[in-house]
Amino acid sequence: MKKLVVLSLVVAFVLVVGAPFSFGADEVFKIRFGHVAPPPHPQNKAALFFKDYVEKKSNGRIQVSVHPLGQLGGEIGQAEAVGLGTQEMASITSETLANFVPQMGLFSLPFFYQNFEELERVWSGEVGFQIMQEFTKHGMYCLAWSSNGFRDWANSKHLIHSPEDMKGMKLRCTEAPVYIDAYKALGVDPITMPWPEVFSATQQRVIDGLDLPVIALEMIKFYETTKYLTVSNGWPNSGIMTIVNKGLFDRLPDDLKRVVQEGAYQSAKLNLSYTLEGTFHGIDKWKEKGGEVHVLTEEELGAFREKMVPVHDKWRKTIGPELYDRALEIIKETRAQP
After folding, report:
1. CA dist 155 to 186, 212, 302, 323, Å?
2. Of these four, 227, 301, 313, 338, which has the most CB atoms within 10 Å of its CB?
3. Are strands 209-212 and 29-34 parallel, antiparallel or unpaired?
4. 29-102+114-147+238-280 in CATH: which number?
5. Which CATH number fits domain 151-236+285-336: 1.20.1440.130, 2.40.440.10, 3.90.180.10, 3.40.190.170?
6. Which pTM value belongs to this model?
7. What span, in angstroms and rounded, lies between the C-alpha atoms of 46 and 52?
8. Domain spans of the chain?
9. What pLDDT score does 280 carry?
10. pLDDT cut 90: percent of the chain above it
11. What is the pLDDT of residue 25?
């Protein structure tokens, strides 16, 4: 398996603005922090860290309740709620946020990045910062980014070595236009369905499988229903974006702004650290449970990259040619380094 790069830095994209109102030092701000990951997942562990951090650093002036597993609704609903101010914060996947900020599709382009280092170089620089600024148009700030790794394919039919192995497969797909486009290019029938129905759908063979990072596939025991795991090394999973309602953040006193920003930054780093560690564990556990695993080789990856050319061309227009081309330049510069 291609070596995973442990990033030394996850940049918080902070948009600092002046607070139009002043509040007393004894005012308490309540934050509901939602996401859709299960409790053992790195995303939830990071959210719980954020809660502990800001409550301690604010001396109780900020109180946070964490709501995992879609308790506050699906990702689109939660993103809308944060923008409207009916929910204060959330960690939302990049592909879902592309429904609001189309440029977020750059984070999720299949077989665009080859490793975490390339992803980090693009998103911790001017390209990522420029995209983060777009969130203000939707009533929210994006305070930090992290990643849940690369998505892998689990299915009940066979191991995948080439795009031809995927033709005709019915795979569960998130409601993300970029993924739907990519699956159609591979000859896959992308099936969108609510997350709570997915496991039973694999049991009943309503779908052949799904894509998720191996850490999540193993955690939810998909090896019981989808024996074959293919490690993609190129199908980016979600960027995990920490978003906050703009109105709430603008009203915070400056010292609490800094606490929330730093808490988001530190929790993003923690999420990534847990993800990298859990990837190796997940593959080993899958094999222990009787599943079969194949890691796509560099030669095999070439065939998938070729299939993605029309998808990348389409999304270059959506993302914006200037941003797309600059990201590609950064990736090429990264690959050229010894």
Report:
1. 15, 11, 22, 35
2. 227
3. unpaired
4. 3.40.190.170
5. 3.40.190.170
6. 0.83
7. 10
8. 29-102+114-147+238-280, 151-236+285-336
9. 81
10. 70
11. 59
